[in-house]
Amino acid sequence: MNWRQGRGHGADLCLPLPARLCLLTLLSPPLSSAAPISPAEPISQAYSLALYMQKNTSTLLQTYLQYQGSPFSDPGFSAPELQLSSLPPATAFFKTWHALDDGERLSLAQGAFLALTQHLQLVGDDQSDLNPGSPILLAQLGAARLRAQGLLGNMAAIMTALGLPIPPEEDTLGLVAFGASAFERKCRGYVVTREYGHWTDRAVRDLALLKAKYPA
Amino acid sequence: MALFEVFQTTFFLALLSLRTYQSEVLAERLPLTPVSLKVSTNSARQSLHLQWTVQNLPYHQELKMVFQIQISRIETSNVIWVGNYSTTVKWNQVLHWSWESELPLECATHFVRIKSAVDDARFPEPNFWSNWSSWEEVNVQDSLGQDILFVFPKDKLVEEGANVTICYVSRNIQNNVSCYWEGQQIYGEQLDPHVSVFHLSSVPFIRKTGADMYCEVSQGNVSKGIKGIVLFVSKVLEEPKDFSCETQDFKTLHCTWDPGVDTALGWSKQPSQSYTLFESFSGEKKLCTHKNWCNWQITQDSQETYNFTLIAENYLRKRSVNILFNLTHQVYPMNPFSVNFENVNVTNAIMTWKVHSMKNNFTYLCQIEVYCEGKMMQYNVSVKVNGEYLLSELEPATEYMAQVRCADASHFWKWSQWSGQKFTTLEAAPSEAPDVWRNVNSEPGSHIVTLFWKPLSKLHANGKILFYNVVVENLDKPSRAEIHSIPAPAKSTKLTLDRHSYQIWVTANNSVGASPASVIVISADPENQEVEEERIVDTEGGFSLSWKPQPGDVVGYVVDWCDHPQYTLCDLQWKNVDPNATSTVISTDAFRPGVRYNFRIYGLSTKRIARLLEKKTGYSQELAPSDNPHVLVDKLTSHSFTLSWKYYSTESQPGFIQGYHVYLKSKARQCHPRFEKAVLSDGSECCKYKIDNPEEKALIVDNLKPKSFYEFFVTPFTSAGEGPNATFTKVTTPDEHSSMLIYILLPMFFCVLLIMIVCYLKSQWIKETCYPDIPDPYKSSILSLIKFKEKPHLTIMNVSDCIPDAIEVVSKPEGTKIQFRKSLTETDLTQPNYLYLLPTEKNYCGPGPFICFENLTYNQAASDSGSCGHVPVPLQPSPSQLGLMISPENVQKALEKNYMNSLGEISAGETSLNYVSQLASPMSGDKDSLPTNPVEPPHCSEYKRQMAVPLCLASPPPTENSSLSSITLLNPGEHYR
């Protein structure tokens, strides 16, 4: 556990200013303040972080695939049919998505990023086993997990500001298949890094909508 | 008690014989059939695990049995493997046996059955097999789940070069499945409609993270998913190489080996191979923590022989190597220490060192190496505990590096590391006299002797040379020897000696003492400089010098030269030559092409007096001249000119100047008689003349055409070629007649100049003669006119006769002048009652010109009123004023006319005129009124124009005497009436 924290710190140092601010927000307890907080500020912070995350998601996916060998490293590799039951899909019908209220929308994103943080941890462990000599991939996975956690914190702050109930943290992974074969683990990592990107895209849209709704 | 034991034994034997009999009966009649056959699977190992028991086995009896096992695939009739398994079976024993399938078990149903037979020596009868057990079906596929595709085996670990069978199970036969091995599509054989098998033979090691095999399921063009496996191919574990063990202290054995390739794989599939050390005599084992070395503690002093087995092991293979050795033969001693040098003197030193104590009676063999300036001496010495060795035949004042290493003397295994130290031997007096030479410059009354010496070689210096002693002794008259001490590293000194013979001793000194002396004698006579210089050439990288053998006693020859003759400090070098030799070769890296080297050969007499014998000069390589002479063109005529370059130095050139080439370009196609045609480097043609004498530094170029354009270029040449290319100098021959013209023009010029000088010198006289400031009326041409008119009573007033009564200086401001002029103009119209002496001319501005004999100075009233200020006459320049501007003839004519007219009128009118003359101060107004007057009167005094004043205007009317106050008669008694 100590090692993981240490790694997280290392990744933290590499983060740019907006991300660091967001992580500070995460570290400071959002509910400690007695005064009601304006939702505009946490929305803006979350939006900045999501935008920053969005810039790095494709790099993460490409780096991940590059280290997995064929067929993952083949040019243009894509397997949309691969899904993980423990990870909610980011794709949604637009009408359905648009019809969601703030609470539902944030709650879905919250749940997804909670699942993603746990899955990114799992993928990081897998890869440190498979590719111990690839610090770049491991650092990127660690950084992605930390940012997902930062976004979770921001979302919690938004929900607090909006007076919405914060869903409890759950073990979304449940009983993970430790005996999964190497190929299955590679596939799992692929799905996680891919969905991380999709969910980041969706979070940007979610937060943009909220931003418009609660201007500063 | 004993009785009871005997009884018990008897009973047991009886029972055993009974059992044996029973079993024989059973074996013959009741076959020992395998029962309770259960088959389990291990997917990871792809193995079937069988367990069974043997029925009808007698109680507590062991039988050697053989079991035949049949394995079928897909269906029972498709037997793919049959094998026997022999073992000793006990009563009620559960038997286990495993079989590994090359095909993943998930891909096909397997069937297993077994039968047995007794294979025991106690039953020599021919065996008969029991019946087959019933087929046991092994079907793993059913437990796979509902996925559309499965690929097996998962994460299999194989060694490089192994054959691997891969299969997939597709749930839907409608689906199209394509499989790829490391990105390349592979095609398998169909086992059944759902299962395909791929045989990969001799799989290579691709990467530590495994090789990938995946299959893509698609229906039509729609991909429905991918499934794959990672095949972990390990490198083949190598046998450790160079395994050996040694000890430094008889307490620890240090074993090392070369591990070869690391067979670790990613994903923790296989760690790096492990190494285990096993010693068979002691039966001890140790797992080594390092991959290439291991330490083994020696626990028993008595054990001398060791038999080590090094076992390398990974998940797939085990390799081992073995060494057997005697501990005392594997001693790698520790480094010697405390290396010291005692009693270091000029040529000897005692080296001491210590070695680590070992067991009793352990003897070291130590090796000493002594280094000095690239040389090495080696000594071997036997040592128990303390080493000591006398290093002799050393050189004085030399730094040595000595090092020692040791090994086991009785059983050489390995040298220890070196331990070393530096030491320096003591100095001794220099052993050889310095090599000395001199250069003597004779000056009036003295010799300037410069002594040069070469530093002693290290071999002869025997230490650091601190100074050189130069002792000078006069040989001609007894006197005290002079001693000069010159500190090192000086290599020369200068002495001024009078014209006596001197003997000079030079010694080199270090801290211990002086070297033998080098003796040189300077004779009182000046050096014989009258020696001809001979030219030599460099051959094969050196100057070969030879000279005539000298009669008399010559103890040797010395050749000296300068390495850098072009510099002031020319770096004098010398070479001593054997007295029997008459030639030598001077060769040095300092020689440069294009530099002239001068060699002097001296013979040394027995008295050590050097006498100059010969001089040689030459170039190591001659070069073309570096510059061209500055050529002067002289004696240029229309047909010839002379080129000269007398200041060109032939000595300081990079080669011996052999002559000059003179190139001449002209418009004429033909070359002059002595010239020959040549083509220049730029392709242009010209004429060339060759001068073969380097001292001939002039050339007359003749037979030229006048007024023609020539270009020339002079360049010296050496054996290496001509001087640098340069521009041609242009010369144009003069015209043939131009000289004539010069002969005429020059005297003319001088004549004019002479006249001008004379004129200048006699300017006063000319001025007085030609244009005096005060014209002399006697010289005036008017006189001639007067004479011509024959008016004898007319006379001219002599200025000197005038007695001025008063002088009034009038100074008129500028405004007044203008006003004055204006008033004059105005008064033009008023027609004053002036006497018009001269006839009017139409071109005058006024009503008519007239002469007004005016005296502004005296006639103040008239001047002020302006009645007489209007002076039209000055517009008509007076003859005297225009005398220099107009030709004398015109002046004469004008004067004649004017005078004729005026006089005519005067005579006609019978006008009586008083001629008034005054000395007046200058008036600027006059200048204004006389704009055309080119000669201004002097400022100091001005002679006013003489005017005739009519009597009528003379106020008061003239009387005989009263006019004297204002009018001075020009000549008393001769004025007009």
Number of strands of chain B: 55
Uncertain regions of chain B: pLDDT < 50 for 5+ in a row?
A: 6-27, 814-977
Q: What would you call the quaternary organization?
A: heterodimer
Radius of gyration of chain A: 17 Å
Structural class per helix/strand content of chain A? mainly alpha
Please give the CATH class of the domain at 436-619 in chain B. Answer: Mainly Beta
Rg calc of chain B: 71 Å
CATH topology of chain A: Growth Hormone, Chain: A
**Major pleated sheet of chain A:** none
- The level of helicity of chain B is 10-25%
**H/E element sequence of chain A:** HHHHHHH
Coarse structural class of chain B: mainly beta
CATH architecture of chain A: Up-down Bundle
Describe the structure.
Chain A: It is found in: Secreted. Chain A: One of its GO terms (molecular function) is leukemia inhibitory factor receptor binding. The complex is a heterodimer of chains A (216) and B (977). Chain A has 216 residues and is mainly alpha-helical. Chain A has one domain (39-213): Growth Hormone, Chain: A (Up-down Bundle), CATH 1.20.1250.10. Chain A contains seven helices and no strands. In chain A, helix 1 packs across helix 6 (135-161), helix 3 runs antiparallel to helix 7 and helix 5 runs antiparallel to helix 6. Chain B has a seven-stranded mixed sheet, with no helix packed on it. Chain B has 977 residues and is mainly β. The longest helix of chain B is centred in the N-terminal third of the chain and has 28 residues, at 2-29. Chains A and B meet through helix 7 of A and strand 15 and strand 16 of B.
